[in-house]
Amino acid sequence: MSRKFPLGYLLLLAALLFAPVVVYPVLVMKVLCFALFACAFNLLLGYTGLLSFGHAAFFGSGAYIAGHVLKEWGWPTEFGLLAGTLAAAALGWLVGSLAIRRQGIYFAMVTLALAQMVYFIFIQSPFTGGEDGLQGIPRGHFLGVIDLANDTALYYLVLAICVSAFWLIYRTIHSPFGQILKAVRENEARVVSLGYDVAKYKLVAFVLSAALAGLAGATKALVFKFATLTDAHWHASGEVVLMTLLGGMGTIFGPVVGASVIITLQSELADKVGSLVTVIMGAIFVICVLAFRRGIVGEATALYQRMVGRRA
Amino acid sequence: MEIFGVPVQALMSQLMLGLVNGSFYAILSLGLAVIFGMLNIINFAHGAMYMAGAFLAWMGLTYWGISYWWSLLLVPPAVGLVGIAIERTMLRWLYQLDHLYGLLLTFGLALMIEGLFLYLYGSSGLPYEVPDMLGGTINLGFMFLPKYRAWVVGVSLLACLGTWYVIEKTRLGAYLRAATENPRLTQAFGINVPLMVMLTYGFGVALAGLAGVLAAPIYQADPQMGSKLIIVVFAVVVIGGMGSIMGSILTGLGLGVIEGLTKVFYSEASSTVVFVIMVCVLMVRPAGLFGREK
Predict the structure, then answer these.
(1) What ipTM does this complex have?
(2) pLDDT at site B184
(3) What is the DSSP string of B69-95?
């Protein structure tokens, strides 16, 4: 099976390369940004076993910082993205070093509370523009040459960012470092007894995840040319949990599937049912937890293995 | 008369409002702690149940003319019944799994309940009159004490202390503590643990409903009142730790008062002060003020 996966990736990449011809590129870019956000989150939940309920703080700060340096300071696009990523990483280091002092369910509560604190700081800080958010963020020129005002040009930049980040996550998971993260998820006490500094591994994973979430937020700010409080709200934290859960936590590809389904569903339903979207999201949550804990990719893999097993 | 340049009247009224908030923190964190002890689940839907309590009181008065006093009596059991239905149909399938699933499920429920009320009633709050008997203020000489706020603090304290008494001092409470400590052994002694689990969840949620009814005349019935509160209550729970009932009550009240005082002296920080305290506690005493390191 491991041989078939790279082929699948290549097919998907090919499909994504031609996607803007068929589909509205901004929608695909939104899906890509949230897919990256969910993959970053999954690195923590699926591979380290840490449920962060405050990842919107990193997504939001990535968006705000990138937006601020691009709009107010006139930085080039690539540095704007970098600034957003680094800001989120720094925030991730702060939040992470506090949150890893508690385990399990407390970890989730601490991250949620700290993210709410960040949210309140964003509301009060003048640079975020309060309720209006940061409007009219310039996309600029990539490397000073490619005009990103063109949606297609921006699309390929976003695709490149997401594919590289996805590759980074893939490599992390399959590295010795990733193996230790998985060991922490399975049996933390055992890893401690083997002499690993678990707190350090958790913190590095947390910072990496926060940085990539910030990159996703910064990219999203570039695509939509605005950053608002919605990006940092706890609803966004819940959404990324839902995407990962629905797609399949602890699977490499699950968050991408989950993000695609949720974003498509939201944009399809928004006009038809209005605020009932939240109720539907909640219902999907409940159904996933009760009946569908492996998620779409997890269930599909299990089904595939059962079929292969029967044939053999 | 002034203290630190702040008029006593303003200081006292914020202190009173802080106490009111603190008693809501206390009731909700107490409920969370009791539920966590028995079910091993952090009930994210607690805030939604609080909100539902306020809305049921409003709906009772508006649609059926049920007075505040009857609401106070009827709404908590009604919310408790909803909780029992949730426990029977959903939560009980999760007891064998990781704690995280309970949090995720109740998070989904919270989204559903909040979304439904938002859809039906919009995001602006619906006003609820203070009952006549509790309207007006009492002149204490140095301040005017609004009767209703004093009433809220009194009822909340009574509910909290009653819960503490039942759990710590009665036979039923002893069964409950035994089941929290070791459910299988308790069951082997012939105590119906699943029934107790069900009633515990119902009771914890009913407390949230009671807080909701108490809150309706102060904060109006607002679909988002629950989610705003529950995140602060999580911070309260992290600060206090869930090991001790009395600890939850004291932490809740104390943080409410601190928040009220912050509003007077440095109002910009009033929304974040609880989180800042949480950060400090995490640095100094990660298990929480009253927590036990497991």
Answers:
(1) 0.86
(2) 87
(3) HHHHHHHHHHHHHHHHHHHHHTGGGGT
